[in-house]
Amino acid sequence: MRRLLVLVLSALLVSSTGVAAADEQVVGGERASIEANPWVVHLLDDRGTQFCGGTLVAPQKVLTAAHCATGRAARDVQVVAGREDKQDRQAGVVAAVTDIWIHRQYVSADQGEDVAVLTLRKSLSYPPLPFAEPTDQALYEPGTELRALGWGRTSENGRTSRYLMQATVPVLPDDYCLDTYPHFLKEDMFCAGYDAGKVDTCQGDSGGPVVAGGKLVGVTSWGEGCARRGKPGVYVRISRYAKDLHPVVDASPPAVVEP
Ligand code: ARG
């Protein structure tokens, strides 16, 4: 009888913690709607698997992380816009990529310049999101609340999310990021999160948007594990790359030459 009680109790415990874990999105996130964030996109590889995020910054241009684009041929990447549920094939549009621009100084995510721009075969009708300019430094003040979006993992070793998720994280002081990550580059990056961890971006979110003040301020780049105590997420400081991005993003698409 005692044994049975213990069994029943432990079964209850296991199932209740199971429920709690499923509820509490590990990146401390919650669902986000595509209608409220119409410029957020996800990238599919040649097998149709989502591997990164991105942001529509012009009708035919998607900003993502260089580490999402490197080593891939344009024909092996597709951009999915207007689709909150990755499994909803009817929703939104899938656009082919015709060109991949990667920052010429890019080596690896933790060495900076983790930015790339994908050119789409067709113009999309979703509203693009403007990116931060050098005059937007106020958005990078420690404590500024940023919203990160993506379909990445909802726990460090978990699976990527079927639905678009968002998490709010404050910008941390550069000194904090430097203490945690000695090779952190404060000119090229910023870090955001809580000392206690729990809320963070994770694998699969890379390349995706981090927004504040109606602008794209960051791109998800790297971090040690996900949502770990004292290990915040590191993001591309987009304002720093505005100068490099403008010629690529604002370039008018090649004119169709008629014979
Ligand atoms: N590099 C990862 C990706 O490719 C993003 C990692 C973000 N990590 C973090 N702890 N915030 O999706």
Automatic annotation (TrEMBL):
Say which family it is in. Belongs to the peptidase S1 family.
Ligase as a keyword of this entry, yes or no, is no
Keywords, A to Z, come to:
Disulfide bond, Hydrolase, Protease, Serine protease, Signal
Species annotation: Lentzea albida
One annotated GO molecular function? serine-type endopeptidase activity
CDD domains documented for this protein:
Tryp_SPc
**Any Gene Ontology biological process:** proteolysis
Task: Give residue ranges for domain Peptidase S1.
Answer: 26-250
Segment forming the signal sequence: 1-21
Gene3D superfamilies membership? Trypsin-like serine proteases
Q: Does the keyword Zinc apply?
A: no
What protein name applies here? Trypsin
